[in-house]
Q: What sequence folds into this?
């Protein structure tokens, strides 16, 4: 019983102690003249958690669309299937050949990668940014599984994050989509003490990185704040415009194309 209680606390803390029921509203701007960027929240949160990043993007001239996904009690694959339906609806309101971009925080990045790997509409996505995404799995999720199988079966999203489960997602990034990842290394959150390697308090830096990425960068933020910061938003915008976190966009490139 004591181990189960410990595991439950671990599961809640990984989620950031946020109530997904309070963040159920989806949002997008009315205009469709700007480049559309779909924002995907992480485990145990909701679309409101992506609002600050959406504001930065809108100020830069993008059309930001946030989606609400069941990323607490559903597996990543199940959430990704729901996401695919939402993306199809978004695309139906755009010109046939217009591309979109995607940005995901934490587990939201895995949902995006699953979509890119398994859904035909992925050919409409030209740029993707993964923020603090456990691309190689979460050690904290693995710890929760060691405490109780029932725990991770209940919090099924958490089960999907165990390192041994990531390969089963069969993630294969498409050639036509440039993908960049941003990791944080400010490990001042409580659970960061349980991780031996450089981390953001939830996810290890080495889990965010994988060799097929088009670009990778580390910033000094923790897992809960990284996607709310202006510096992160600036990196996202630079990548969407140039395909790189360090290069300035080509002045002749129109991001609406």
A:
């Amino acid at each position: 019983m004591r181990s189960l209680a410990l595991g439950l606390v671990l599961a809640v803390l990984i989620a950031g102690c946020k109530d997904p029921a309070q963040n159920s509203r989806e949002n997008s701007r009315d205009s469709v003249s700007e480049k559309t960027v779909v924002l995907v929240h992480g485990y145990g949160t909701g679309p409101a958690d992506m609002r600050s990043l959406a504001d930065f993007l809108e100020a830069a001239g993008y059309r930001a669309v946030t989606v609400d996904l069941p990323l607490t009690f559903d597996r990543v694959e199940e959430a990704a299937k729901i996401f695919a339906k939402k993306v199809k609806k978004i695309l139906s309101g755009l010109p046939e050949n217009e591309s979109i971009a995607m940005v995901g925080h934490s587990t939201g990045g895995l949902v995006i990668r699953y979509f890119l790997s398994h859904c035909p509409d992925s050919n409409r996505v030209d740029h993707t940014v993964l923020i603090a995404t456990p691309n190689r799995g979460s050690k904290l999720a693995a710890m929760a599984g060691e405490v109780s199988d029932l725990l991770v079966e209940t919090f099924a999203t958490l089960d999907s994050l165990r390192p041994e489960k990531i390969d089963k997602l069969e993630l294969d990034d498409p050639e036509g989509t440039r993908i960049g990842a941003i990791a944080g290394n400010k490990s001042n959150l409580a659970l960061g003490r349980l991780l031996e390697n450089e981390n953001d308090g939830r996810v290890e830096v080495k889990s965010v990185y994988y060799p097929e990425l088009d670009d990778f960068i580390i910033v000094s933020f923790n897992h809960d704040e990284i996607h709310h910061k202006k510096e992160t938003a600036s990196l996202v915008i630079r990548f969407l415009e140039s395909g790189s976190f360090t290069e300035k966009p080509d002045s002749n490139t129109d991001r609406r194309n």
Q: What stands out?
A: Confidence is low (pLDDT under 50) at residues 1-9, 17-25, 29-33, 251-257. Residues 76-92 form the longest helix (17 residues).
